[in-house]
């Protein structure tokens, strides 16, 4: 049975290909290209948390901090125990000069996962 394409002519298989290509673009330091690919994936699959997390990372890498904050927040609404999303949201807040909010998310990340990088940023000793 052939895959059904949506109104954009894209199929679930092409969305997977776009997601993987976006991962490669982000790794190659082309976050804006990654965002463009992920916009279509998320439009077709708004529930896809992995795509939203990748788009949040791409926004962060492109210094688009407000969109990154919004995407990380959506991820955390769906996965409140996602230590990486807490850490990344903390970094986003930190870059915006919102240090109290950043510290809260760094501490949540460290509480969820004792990753040395998370623990260092959490500053539990202060």
Automatic annotation (TrEMBL):
TPR repeats lie at residues 83-116. Pfam families: TPR_19 (PF14559), TPR_2 (PF07719). It comes from Streptomyces naganishii JCM 4654. This is Tetratricopeptide repeat protein. InterPro entries: TPR-like_helical_dom_sf (IPR011990), TPR_2 (IPR013105), TPR_rpt (IPR019734). SMART domains: TPR (SM00028). Keywords: Repeat, TPR repeat. PROSITE patterns: TPR. The keyword ATP-binding does not apply. It comes from the Bacteria.
């Amino acid at each position: 049975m052939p895959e059904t394409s949506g109104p954009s002519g894209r199929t679930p298989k092409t969305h997977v290909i776009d997601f993987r290509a976006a991962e490669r673009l982000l790794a190659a330091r082309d976050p804006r290209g990654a965002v463009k690919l992920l916009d279509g994936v998320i439009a077709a699959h708004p529930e896809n948390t992995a795509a939203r997390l990748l788009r949040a990372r791409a926004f962060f890498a492109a210094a688009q901090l407000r969109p990154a904050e919004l995407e990380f927040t959506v991820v955390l609404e769906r996965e409140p125990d996602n230590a990486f999303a807490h850490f990344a949201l903390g970094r986003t807040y930190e870059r915006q000069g919102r240090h109290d909010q950043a510290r809260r998310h760094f501490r949540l990340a460290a509480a969820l996962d004792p990753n040395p990088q998370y623990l260092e940023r959490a500053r539990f000793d202060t």
